[in-house]
Amino acid sequence: MTRSSIKSAVTWGLRLGLGGLLIVASIDKLLHPLEFSFAVAGYGVIGQGGALLVAAVLPMLELVTGLLLISGRWSENAALAGAMLYTVFLLLVAQAFVRGIDIECGCYRTEGGGGITWLKVIENSSLAAGAWLLFYLHSVEKERGSRG
Amino acid sequence: MKSNLRIGSLVGLLLVSAVLGLLWNQAYPGGLSWRLLQLSLPDGSRRSAWQPVSTDSAFALWIRREVCFVDLRSPEDFRLDHIPGALNKPFLSFFRNPEVVTDDRPVMVYDFEAHSERSVLLVQAFRRAGAEAFFLRNGYRDWLAYGFPREAAEVR
After folding, report:
1. What are the respective helix, strand and coil percentages of chain B, to the nearest 5?
2. How far, CA to CA in Å, does A91 sit from each of A97, A137, B14?
3. Long-range CB contacts (< 8 A, 24+ apart) of B4-12?
4. Where are the domains of chain B?
5. Between chain A and chain B, how many beta carbons pairs sit less than 8 Å apart?
6. Which residues of A touch B (CB under 8 A)?
7. pLDDT at residue number B2
8. Residue by residue, what is the 3-state secondary structure of A81-116?
9. Bridge partner list, B110
10. pTM of this prediction?
């Protein structure tokens, strides 16, 4: 197996995994936006009013980004958007963990889905790291493409 | 130049998602209505959360008589049965003419269904009128499912 084929397999796997996860995470939020706004407000970063706006926009952003990642269209920008989304999720979960806020994650389902534990922080760290790796791989690929 | 283009692309993605998200919420029956989304505009109390209360916590508050329950369903539904001691303030009539409830206790609004948008709007109306207000997260249906007390009575 050549180095470039490993790289393309990793890129493909990351795109599929991270994009698929974003799509799955968006569906329950799209179907239950009001409940999702409660979950957002529970993180204690914005008030309930702001959480409504986030609940109206974020699930669609996740869905669109997920679809772009999987389809491979607009790949570099989609990877950057995905990386930023996963980083924001990580920061939210980490601050809730540090502050000891007793809430349910609301990550993939608006209700349930477990509380915020250090495992959740590790899970989100891994996803964010994977998303930034995907962005890096796409950037390198694009850089090579523009040179050659 | 390249980074400007990238920022522009991300802003474009955000705007497209925002428009699609808002349209989805208007088209989808369970979505966030414009009226509800207007609550996201700053009103001086942006840090406040509505704090939906679980059914068992609400029952504990009911036992201790620490809150005043407000049933926002129609008088007909209220007459059939309701949480003992609750006041009936039908949603539309109350929302048109908000009037803070009789005593000084915080208000616990409830509807029949869970996650009721009407409850949220009413809680906000109470809060704007200066009262402390919460709502029963899973609604009266869940209260009944728990087998908690209910009574049938005339509208107060």
Report:
1. 45, 10, 40
2. 10, 23, 19
3. B6/A77, B6/A80, B9/A74, B9/A77, B10/A77, B10/A80, B10/A81, B10/A84
4. 2-31, 52-146
5. 95
6. 30-35, 37-38, 41-42, 46-53, 55-61, 63-65, 74, 77-78, 80-81, 84
7. 67
8. HHHHHHHHHHHHHHHHHHHCCCCECCCCCCCCCCEC
9. B71
10. 0.74
Q: Which CATH class is domain B52-146?
A: alpha beta
Question: Residue B125, Cβ neighbours under 10 Å: how many?
Answer: 18
Tens digit of each residue's pLDDT, chain B (156 residues): 567 778 888 999 999 999 999 999 999 988 888 777 776 665 544 445 567 888 989 999 999 888 999 999 989 999 999 999 998 988 877 766 666 666 778 889 999 988 888 888 888 778 777 788 888 988 999 999 999 999 986 544
Identity of the residue numbered B20: L
Residue closest to A46 by CA, chosen among A82, A108, A88: A88
- Put simply, the answer to whether A56 touches B37 (Cβ < 8 Å) is yes
